[in-house]
């Protein structure tokens, strides 16, 4: 099947393979390092598939590490959701979940070591002054007036920073590298700041917190990471990553390798903007099935295998990775095709009375749940005097080539008889409210004699069908780059104005009887309509049946474009 398709090589795999061949490493160790300040999205899923995937493929291991150095923005709900999403995607991290906070003592000790070596100093410039001194791409920076303090003074001040003697933001610890370096990241970067904030792991133990760049490389080295894979925006930080590890006493020096960030059209992959959608109530939550979050995709009915197939298809490179949403939908659809049983559902019901239906004469038939998978089993497809068909399978004035219902025409009821439409019943306003039809009793499981009936429609016995709430989801945005549309003034337009008002439609539908007692997160294909899943939050077996549409059977967007 598709998820067994061969692994495509890439520059990261080549590096790993040559490191194994040369004996530089005997075992591969990677990590996935999310910041617990939001839910994981499809871009993270790509990074997860890469980090856990290469570890798996080369018999190595991958750590899950919460990159929690920003106490004000992080919380336990996010941390738990991240772990659960990684698990759901089908990956297992090595040992316990790690946290940058687990290394706060060691990080502090290394900072003292750097200070003692004359490679770090305590600075009192405020943020604005620091920006000024930093210079820019054209202008070299200027040394901080505090740069030449004695080692003793620096050590004393740093210890007192830790002891809580100074106000938040009043001092920082900075590396002494080079204020004229062309790479701005090397212009005496701050590695510690004073911030009295409660931390999810360490509580109020610390009032100084290490900065990301300093923390990340040391955490990687402490965990024995061999290849530290990250997105391209960190390429300019690599010299700092290497500088820190070269200037402290540590045995391990992981290799940082960058790849391009996944950008998905018709959605957004910025945690900050996704958080805005949630916080402003524009979606129902992080797990709204229209969200590109892992938890949203899960609730939408996407499978881990479909998402992994997608990650494999988008590949890994250093060039732009802008991908149409139809690639994700296509991978999900393809994976569901062979794995979902198929049943019938009618989303917009139109009543049909079978005028020649006769109890005991009109027979039911069994039908397989999947044409290529007999092991999925069969069910009975009952029929009764009243059936439901789809409103748009009937046309009073049919377009040319119409093979579905119209007065005087015949169609095959899927897994049942050929049916002829004899009469239309309308309400006072002229709306079609019912069809009167008759069955050809000689056509159960066989072709009618002397004529061809081409159209096949889905339908349900009204007496047997179960009513359900079905949520028809579509893309959340009407434009390919909702967060990158520039207005006449050259400024980015507000992405909120591109929210697709038709991205959710709720209908009361009818489904085959099997739908009555399903567990949450059960997936079915509804024939001719798409793939659907029972909602993991609102569906209650036997009580309240709620299905979400994961994806339609055809890519309606591509053909519209
Ligand atoms: P921020 O740091 O702004 O909160 P982030 O998207 O970088 O957002 P992290 O939690 O730091 O979030 O990301 C964890 C890992 O996932 C990082 O290694 C990052 O490079 C990777 N990652 C994040 N977004 C994408 C993306 N769109 N495509 C591929 N990898 C991504
Ligand atoms: Mg980040």
UniProtKB/TrEMBL annotation:
Protein's UniProt keywords contain ATP-binding: yes
Localisation per UniProt entry: Cytoplasm
Any matching Pfam family: tRNA-synt_1c_C
Protein's UniProt keywords contain Acetylation: no
Protein keywords: Aminoacyl-tRNA synthetase, ATP-binding, Cytoplasm, Ligase, Nucleotide-binding, Protein biosynthesis
Domain Glutamyl/glutaminyl-tRNA synthetase class Ib catalytic: 28-325
Domain called tRNA synthetases class I (E and Q) anti-codon binding: residue spans: 456-535
GO biological process: glutaminyl-tRNA aminoacylation; glutamyl-tRNA aminoacylation
Positions contributing to ATP binding: 35-37, 231, 261-262
Predominant location category: cytoplasm
Gene Ontology cellular component annotations, sorted alphabetically: cytosol
EC number(s) recorded for this UniProt protein: 6.1.1.18
Domain Glutamyl/glutaminyl-tRNA synthetase class Ib anti-codon binding positions: 340-440
Binding-site list for L-glutamine: 67, 212
TM helices/strands, residue ranges: none
PROSITE patterns linked: AA_TRNA_LIGASE_I
Subunit structure: Monomer.
HAMAP family referenced in this protein's UniProt entry, alphabetically: Gln_tRNA_synth (MF_00126)
Family as reported in the entry's similarity comment: Belongs to the class-I aminoacyl-tRNA synthetase family.
Protein name as catalogued: Glutamine--tRNA ligase
